[in-house]
Every structure is written in structure tokens, then in C-alpha cells.
């Protein structure tokens, strides 16, 4: 089994703040994100979103925030996009490494999240991947509702794997299995990650769990033992998807990831928690 030091940790302040109703000033976001970057505690930073300001007004200043970030360290930046227009905006940011696209296997959620059907979303993704590769950006596709959904839409492990197969054929190698509304049980996590990692040995498959604090460590453990080596989290476990109508079930707390993987940085995490509260105050 690989060492825990080989884990990729993704901090997701974008996910943490996107549903906050009052707009946080750009300068406060820049100060907070630069603090996270300068700590070099994280491998990736999910720092913004190139979507319609009407849909997510909190992140309307993403381009300006990116221009002011200090990216001289090891941490790579990721931004979320929902269509080709967003991709064309995102590729103009030289310090952005990854474009993240949420691809839901729930028809209801795909419509809510990107105003498109699953079939239309896949066609969009083809164009997005082409734009990303032309500009030497890497794609990360989030398989939303990967562990089921509360809407009654059909779901199965095989459905997840089939869509991963189709998306990988476009040239995507970075995936994240997203438990968007905290549906996943521990056996589901184990089974899906084992099956996905066995079928797609050349892909990098991470975990993006929304979870109550009480079950976060168990979910981390289940995914890790099943072979997952990339984990998303958010300081204090804040956030969730405002389009899921799940009362913003929080993210996996970053402090749990730091604890579980025995990373140095517990003292920094305490500081980050206080700074995050100041950010959203």
C-alpha cells in the first residue's frame, strides 16, 4: 500500500463559500487564498468558478482574484466551469492548471446544476476538453451523484463506470467521485472505488464527499482502504452545493484529512479556521 505521504489533498474554498448569500469582498478572498497557498499544505486549491454571475454571484470576481494570487509555491490551482463559455474565460488565467467540470449522472441534478440534460452535458464536455487541451490545461471531471441521488433517478455502480469510460475516451484522466448529497454508505464507497480503480488503472480517481462531521473520518478511511489517493476537503467542513437542495450538507473537514493522513499542519489548520470565520463574517 502506498505511503500516506503520497496523498493529494485538495482544499476547496470555492465550494465552501459559493452558497454564502452576502458577497465577500475580493480583497478578503485574495488575502485568505494567498494564506492557504503560502502554507504549501495543499497540493491543489479549488479557488473559483467561471460560471454565470447570476447563478453564483459570490464567485463573479474569480478572474480578478486569480490575477492577485501568489502561485510561486507547489500548490496548483483549479477552477470550475459549466460550459464552453466558462472554459474560454478560464483558459485566459495563466496560473490555472485544472478546469473542473461537474458531470452528473442524475438527470434532475444535471439540469439544476448546468441547465442541461446528461446527453447535452456530455456534448458540452467534448468542446470543453478540446478547449482545455488546446490551451494546455488539464481537465478534472466530477461525477456528481456518484453514490446515488435523492431524486429517484436511476443509479448504479455500472452507470458510474460506463460514463467514466465514455469521458476517459475524450482524453480526461483526472476524475473525482462526488457524493453530492451525502448518499454514500461505507460499503458503497468501498465497492465503487475498488471497481473504478480496477477497471481504470491509468486514471487518477479522487473523492469529493459531502458529509456530516460524524461520518467524515469513516468515509475517508473507506475510500483510502479501497485505493483512493486524492481527497477534497474544506476548512471546518463548510459548504456544499447550493443547487442540490440538500441544506448545504458540508464538505469533508480538511482538519480530518490532515489528522487521518498524519500531515504536519494541525497548527496552521487552527489558524485557517479562524481566518475562514473572519472571511465569511
Descriptive notes:
The protein is 42% helix and 17% strand. By secondary structure, it is an alpha/beta fold. It has one domain (4-280): Aldolase class I (TIM Barrel), CATH 3.20.20. Strands 7-6-5-4-3-2-1-8 form an eight-stranded parallel β-sheet. The radius of gyration is 17 Å and the shape is globular.
Q: Supply Rg.
A: 17 Å
As laid out across the biggest beta sheet, the strand order is 7-6-5-4-3-2-1-8
Number of helices: 11
- Spatial gap, N to C terminus: 42 Å
What is the H-and-E element order? EHHEHEHEHHEHEHEHEHH
The profile of the biggest β sheet is: 8 strands, parallel
CATH superfamily: Aldolase class I
Q: Care to give the gist of this entry?
A:
This protein has helices at 13-17, 26-39, 62-67, 84-90, 107-114, 118-134, 157-168, 186-199, 213-225, 254-260, 266-280; strands at 8-11, 44-50, 76-81, 96-104, 138-144, 174-179, 204-209, 230-233. The protein has eleven helices and eight strands. The protein starts with 7 loop residues before the first strand and ends with a helix.
Amino acid at each position: 500500500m502506498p505511503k500516506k505521504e503520497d496523498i493529494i489533498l485538495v482544499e476547496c474554498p470555492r465550494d465552501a463559500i459559493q452558497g454564502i448569500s452576502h458577497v465577500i469582498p475580493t480583497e478578503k478572498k485574495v488575502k485568505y487564498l494567498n494564506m492557504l497557498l503560502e502554507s504549501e499544505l495543499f497540493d491543489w486549491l479549488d479557488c473559483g468558478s467561471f460560471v454565470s454571475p447570476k447563478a453564483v454571484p459570490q464567485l463573479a470576481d474569480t478572474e480578478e482574484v486569480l490575477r492577485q494570487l501568489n502561485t510561486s509555491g507547489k500548490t496548483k490551482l483549479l477552477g470550475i466551469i459549466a460550459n464552453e463559455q466558462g472554459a474560454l474565460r478560464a483558459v485566459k488565467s495563466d496560473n490555472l492548471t485544472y478546469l473542473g467540470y461537474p458531470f452528473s449522472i442524475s438527470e434532475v441534478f444535471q439540469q439544476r446544476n448546468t441547465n442541461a440534460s446528461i446527453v447535452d452535458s456530455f456534448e458540452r464536455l467534448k468542446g470543453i476538453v478540446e478547449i482545455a487541451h488546446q490551451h494546455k490545461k488539464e481537465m478534472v471531471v466530477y461525477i456528481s451523484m456518484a453514490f446515488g441521488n435523492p431524486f429517484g433517478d436511476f443509479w448504479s455502480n455500472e452507470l458510474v463506470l460506463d460514463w467514466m469510460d465514455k469521458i476517459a475516451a475524450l482524453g480526461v484522466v483526472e476524475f473525482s467521485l462526488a457524493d453530492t448529497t451525502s448518499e454514500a454508505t461505507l460499503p458503497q464507497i468501498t465497492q465503487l472505488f475498488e471497481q473504478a480503480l480496477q477497471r481504470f488503472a491509468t486514471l487518477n480517481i479522487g473523492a469529493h464527499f459531502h458529509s456530516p462531521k460524524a461520518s467524515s473520518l469513516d468515509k475517508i478511511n473507506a475510500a483510502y482502504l479501497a485505493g483512493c489517493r486524492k481527497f477534497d476537503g474544506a476548512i471546518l467542513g463548510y459548504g456544499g452545493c447550493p443547487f442540490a437542495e440538500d441544506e448545504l450538507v458540508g464538505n469533508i473537514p480538511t482538519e480530518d484529512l490532515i489528522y487521518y493522513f498524519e500531515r504536519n499542519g494541525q497548527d496552521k489548520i487552527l489558524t485557517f479556521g479562524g481566518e475562514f470565520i473572519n472571511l465569511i463574517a
